[in-house]
Amino acid sequence: MQLQTHSLHQRYCVIPQSVLKRIVNHPLCSNLYLTEIGYEDETVFHPFTKSKGSEYLLVYVSKGEGRYRVNKKVYPVTENDFFVLPVRFANGLESSSRNPWSIYWAYFSGAQAQKVVQHLVGKQYSPKKAKPLIGRIAQFNDILHHLELMENIENLVYANSRFYSFLCSFRLMVLSSRKHGSKDGVIQSIEYMRENINTMVTLEDLAEVAGLSVSHYCALFKQKTMQTPMQLYTSMKIQRACQLLQNRTQTIKSISYSLGFFDQYHFSKVFKQIMGVPPKSFRNHGGD
Question: Does the CA dihedral 245-249-252-254 come out positive or negative?
Answer without folding.
Answer: negative
